[in-house]
Amino acid sequence: MMARILPFTADPHRETRDLMPWLITGRLDPEEQARVEAHLTTCEECSRELAGERLLAGGIAELPIATGIGWAAMRDRLDTAARQAAFVPAPPAGRRRFTMSQIGAMVAAQAALLAAAVTITLRVEAPTAPYHALGSAPAAAGGNAIIVFRPDARESDISRLLKANDARLVDGPTAANAYVLHIPDAVRTQALNRLRGEAAVVLAEPLDTAALR
Amino acid sequence: MSDGSVAHRHIGGNANATPEDLRLFAGVRARELDAFEALYRLYHPRLARFLLNLLRRPTLVEEVLNDTLFVVWERSDTFRGASKLSTWIFAIAYRKAMKALRRLDEPVEDRDAELRPSGDDGPDAPFERERTQQALLSALAKLSPDHRTVVDLTYFHEMGYREIATIMDCPVDTVKTRMFHARRHLRRLMDGELADWL
To answer: Do A65 and B52 touch (CB under 8 A)?
Structure first.
């Protein structure tokens, strides 16, 4: 029993003062509780303090703090993530194992629609354009990765991340706020790994055009 | 209205010890959306209360709460069982909340208006109890986020100081010290109000 005695035992008054909140909520070890209670029987100051502390504890526990937020926002977010996952042709083992039966036919249908939308976008933009514009990159040489930024990501952060990773914006945003990137094949894997580690990035995955057909 | 908060308190006090969350978490690991929804609903009241008390901004609470539970869904494989599941989830929430506060980089002590019970200072606030609650909310709002966190985890979520130290990633003595200073501030700020509490 002596071996369990903690540093503050040398000053039972201070130990009692410090541990009082957890005496009130019943969260002390039996040994701690016994020491604190023993001190309380002999110290009027600590007993008074304990009475006041119980009022404070009860008041805080009963405070009416509540929010109106709920599951709906999280469900939207999962649906978005599932749509992005549906873009990924060959996820690495162990990552994003969404079972479509769980997520439902609705998400599958949305994913198919989105895939079709991206395909159409890429094909519409594929014809030779007289001007070289960002949105007119040919599909074949264009997207080989998909990225979703956090909704609050700043434009300056996005630019910096793309430049730092040798990535070029090819298309987007899609209906799910995803962007299609082109990253040189030689550095694609490393670049995506780096992007995944960024706070502003929700998702960064390889994208092979075969998956869109 | 107040019934809701009382119900939250019971959930907060009891869910720490229930194996229900571990059962649901096993489903989350198996990528079962139903299990995740049930876990979300189980933790939502506690996390919402914890984050609202810490962050003071309902809009930010929603973002951080969903960020937290999204990590639970996406990174369920990183829970090793070294702590209770609730400790792991609260630690994620605390880290995310502190990160959000740093990102805002603005004072957080004067934003308690949204937290006050409805009828704040209005003609419908005739009761001493409500007045005292408002005084206590106001006093809590004047504490630092770290002090407020320790107070809320101790008295509302009924966690022990070792568990709080794990969540806040600090020594147990720091938890005790923060709690001591927070209590002293609250008692001073509440002045004579507490005597009217009951």
So the answer is: yes
